[in-house]
Amino acid sequence: MTTAALEPRVGRRCHNPLNSLHAAHYFSPDLGEELAAIGVTHPRAVNFAVRAAALGPVGPGAVTAAFYNYKHELVAEHVPAVWRTATPEQVLAARTRAVDATLRRLLGDETVASDGMAEAARLALRAAEGCSRAARPLYSAHADLPVPEEPHLALWHAATLLREHRGDGHLAALMSAELDGLEALVTHTATGRGMTPSWVFTTRGWTRAEWDAAAGRLRGRGLLDAEDELTERGLALREEIEAQTDRLDRAPYEHLGAEGVARLTELAVGFARAATAAGAYPADLIGKR
């Protein structure tokens, strides 16, 4: 049942640890092993395949559009070629096996089988009932997938739905702010909460020259200063982007209600902290340098 509007950042605070739990599999050796078993070995092909598989055997244009901040030429190196190696259905099955192994390794079998895990799955799935499909291709494609029976996989599935729902809305906010994919990355990194440039170059396909050119465009708009730090105008723009994203993503958390959101946040924070402590993420992933 839908409830009254919540404080704007409540949904963001719930989403963040859920997103962290979702994203752990991208850095997991289990994912590489499972995809290699079906013939997909290049790290970038693995990344594109597992996130895009829910869309079906799409071409590079659809992936670039849906992912927003990847260089199209990098996407085109691996899509649609990856679908000639493994079908989307095979990729999705391999991803599920990898997520199962990853969560068990990071959290432990006792946590995976706990009442808290089952409760978190129920709450997250209930929140996802409030999501909407319109103009949200990655969310909508994942919403077509069946809900796994095991609670830890059901929680991961729901976290994925909530992540992609917010992410699709976030792209609308970035477009409204007139930030292209690379400019969005540069400004996010400048906040200190985004990926380091080295990770952007490795995973998104951009070069240092392209990064510097984007920074130059942002300086021209008064969003970065001479040291590539966000100006007051740049900080205000990033804050408005997040606020607009919150507005576009409020429905699932209003649907769950304040008490449910608070409890889901508590549980998700615990799981995310445990995963991080177990080494889920590279130490040099986040930062300005």
TrEMBL record:
**Which InterPro entries does its entry note?**
HTH_67 (IPR054058)
- Which Pfam families does the UniProt record give? HTH_67
Q: Which NCBIfam families match?
A: SCO6745_fam_HTH
Q: What name has this protein been given in UniProt?
A: SalK
Annotated source species: Streptomyces pseudovenezuelae
Q: What is the lineage of its organism?
A: Bacteria, Bacillati, Actinomycetota, Actinomycetes, Kitasatosporales
